[in-house]
Write a structure and sequence with these properties.
Shape: globular
Strand content: 15-25%
Distance between the termini: 31 Å
CATH superfamily: Collagenase (Catalytic Domain)
CATH topology: Collagenase (Catalytic Domain)
CATH architecture: 3-Layer(aba) Sandwich
Structural class: alpha/beta
Order of helices and strands: EEHEHEEEEHHH
Number of domains: 1
Largest sheet: 7 strands, mixed
Bound molecules: zinc ion
Helix content: 10-25%
Length: 207
Amino acid sequence: MSVTPAHLAVTRPSRLQPTLRLTFTLLALALVAVLLGQGAPAQAATNPAPSSTANVGPQLGWTEDTVYVQSDATSRWPVKTATERLSQGSPLRLVLVKTCPVRTSASQPAVQCISVTSGDLGGGTLAGTTRWTFAKSTNKLTTATTTLNDRWAKHASSADRLNIAEHELGHAVGLPHVKRKASIMDAYAHGRTKPDAGDLRALNERY
Ligand SMILES: [Zn+2]
């Protein structure tokens, strides 16, 4: 079964600094739903994480607070620091590992592991992408894969690279875009090197 990624593409020209376009891609959960026997029809989901409002159901996130991160990204990307910054101020714990733990029996909980890689995503303003799957019935994440753009990183400041690494990991733990320059989840990099109060609130809603 194929799934159709929904790209959020935004552009905003700037002469002062490279315009950074981040995209996040949401994989429709048809495959997951079928595997779980939910029988949900295939659909292209848009933003699965509603804003903080009463009676909206669980926010998108992993089931357990500890989530592993396997990074094969180049050293340009400060993935370790990003995991540390996202692990402060909420119960979420991102644990950087060389290799995702392996589930050895069906009785064990599913492995919660984010795969981070980097590569050439082109010479435009795309800094990184994150794709994930989740179970519709629970809004719980089942897989997440982040790809960071090495070509973009060559010309980015260290602050922006950290911003992007945190931003994409933010998607990988369930956070949607917000329109707030102080947030790591703003769709543009602004050299934000740690989550702001709103980001921490969003994490605490999930973990
Ligand atoms: Zn994004």
